[in-house]
Structures are given as C-alpha cells and as structure tokens.
Amino acid sequence: MAAASTCIQDGSLLVNGKTLLTGVPFNVQVSPVESSAAFFFGATSSIPSSRHVFSLGVLQEFQFLCLFRHKIWWMIPRVGKLACEIPMETQMLLLEVKEKSALCHGDSLPLSTDRTFYVLLLPVLEGSFRATLQGARSNELQICVESGDANVQTTNVSEVVFMNSGDNPFKLIKDSIKILENHMGTFKHIDNKKVPGHLDWFGWCTWDAFYMDVNPQGIKEGLERFMEGGCPPRFLIIDDGWQETYNDFQKEGEPFVEGSQFASRLTDIKENGKFRALKQDIPCYDLQEFTNFIKESYGLK
Questions:
Q1: What broad class of enzyme is this (predicted)?
Q2: Side-chain-side CA neighbours of residue 236 (13 Å)
Q3: Which pLDDT belongs to residue 1?
Q4: Which of 226, 190, 206 is nearest to 290 (CA)?
Q5: Are the C-beta atoms of residues 16 and 5 closer than 8 Å to each other?
Q6: How many Cβ atoms from other residues are within 10 Å of residue 270's Cβ?
Q7: Can you tell me the distance from the alpha carbon of 163 to that of 32, in angstroms, rounded to the nearest whole number?
Q8: For the chain, give me the number of helices (H) and strands (E)?
Q9: Which residues of the chain have pLDDT under 50?
Q10: 18 forms bridges with which residues in the sheet?
C-alpha cells in the first residue's frame, strides 16, 4: 500500500479505484512520499548491473501525453493511447483517466457521466542512476535505469519514478514538482526562485543565425545590424564554439556522414578553433578577448 488512493492489489496497480497497470511484477515496489498522496516506484534485480530495464506491468488504454528526448539535447511531445506508443527516453508521462458514473436526475433514468482525473509519472535521479520511461510491444510500461558507467552498478532502486494524481493537469504538474522539490532538496520550483534581471532585457542567441558555423565576424556583423535597426541587444548568447570537442566518427577531411555530428564529446571547457586566430579587423586572440571587445563596442551586459 502506498497511499489511501493508490495500491497494488492482486498484481494490479489501482489509482483512485481505477486499474492503471495489470501484471505488476513481484520485484516492483511502491513507497509513499511523506506528507502527500504521491508515491515512488522502485524495483530490484538479482544481478548487479549499470543498466536495468524493469517492467511495471501492462498499462491500460488511456489517452496520454509524453515528453521524450528525441535528440541528445531536445525533448518533444507525443500523444497516444497504448504503452507501445511511448518512446524510449520518455521524461514525463501524463495519463488521462476517465471513469463512468451514474447520476439520478429526479424520477428519470440514471444519466451516465465521465469523471476524469490525471496521473503524472516523472522519472527522477537516484544517486548515480538516471531513469526514463518506455513502452514495449506487449504494452508493458518499463523503467530504464542506468548509471552510464559500467563500474557503477546496483541491484536495487527505490525512488526512480515519481507518481501523483489529480483532477487538474496543470495544478497536478505544479504541485508534483513542489513535492519533489521538498523531498529531494536538489532544486527549486520557479515560484521559489529569484527571477534574474536579464529576463526583462532584449537578447540575441546566435544559434538560429549560424548553427554550428558561428564565428566572430558573423557575430560582429549581426550586432552591427541590430544597432543600425535601432534595437541593440543587451545580452548575447554565443551558442557553440565555446567548448573543445572531439568526434571519433568524423575525421577532418573525410566525407560527412549524417548523424555523426551527434557523436561529438566534450574534451575541455575552452574555445575551439572558431574563436582562435581571429581576423585582423577584430583585435582579439581568443574568446575572452572577443567577449570583452563586443561588450565595450556594443554595450552588452
């Protein structure tokens, strides 16, 4: 039993009396989150590993919205009804659960109405392990737990997926994040953060203008165009070029292979060749000098 409205009974997970999962394995546990109706999923294995995939059981057919990581740095939404439609690397899963009830109206026959509530599942960090959700062809809902290091192994996780329910999906998400904030103590909800002053400023991010071809000359020309247009930015985000990377699958001079750009790995926090040996009309030798130059020349903060 995890909370008054949630329990595992005869191998089924019930939320507010509605069956959410069937065939819940014996190695899956639920534990309540203190001072709330939410709970955590956990699971055990007899074999230590740096990566486990645990089944939570067969997810019943509900409308869902999920957010999943389709690239290393991007999440996008997906909607569906079956667990097999839930992609790997799912970071959030919101289920719409409808239950039918009968209401009597005077002397007339009972009227059938739908009561809707929502169930939120959020994979979270536990120690050195990260978690994600995914669906299987058998419509099982699975947790993937991994450390990313073959030497960091475990047989047990107890708090890798947070689960909560409520009638309002917006309030449910907000309240759930605040519950996790209090329980984990590793982050703050936006309500408890100080809003940085630069959010009221107009700024420019170089990514959409240059993508990976960002360069000092292009940034300088872009800032000058803003100045000429009468809307000078107060802050600038140089997106790309500030880190040293290496790609084992794409050697210099070799034909480009689609997808190999995603294999670049970070080797140092310093500017790469895009911001070294700058042109003569920019009196700078590295990214630090270039940053100081554009601050002084264009009034950036």
A1: transferase
A2: 25
A3: 37
A4: 206
A5: yes
A6: 13
A7: 10
A8: 4, 17
A9: 1-4
A10: 15
- Structural element, H or E, at residue 209: helix 207-210
In angstroms, the CA 236 to CA 222 distance is 11
Residue 207 half-sphere exposure toward CB, CA atoms < 13 A: 5
CB neighbour burial string for 218-254, b if at least 16 within 10 angstroms, e if fewer = ebbebbeeeeeeeeebeebebebbeeeeeeeeeeeee
Q: Give the long-range contacts of residues 7-12, CB within 8 A, separation 24 or more.
A: 11/57, 12/57
Residue in the block written with tokens 């536990």? 126
Cross-strand partners of 75: 69
Six-digit token string for 124: 């979270």
| Long-range contacts of residues 222-226, Cβ cutoff 8 Å, at least 24 apart | 223/294, 223/297, 223/298, 223/300, 224/298
Q: What does the domain layout of the chain look like in residue ranges?
A: 6-192, 197-298
What is the enclosing helix (H) or strand (E) of 68?
strand 63-71
**pTM for the complete prediction?**
0.80
| Cβ contacts of 279 within 8 Å, gap of 6 or more | 216, 217
Q: What pLDDT, on a 0 to 100 scale, did the predictor assign at position 3?
A: 41
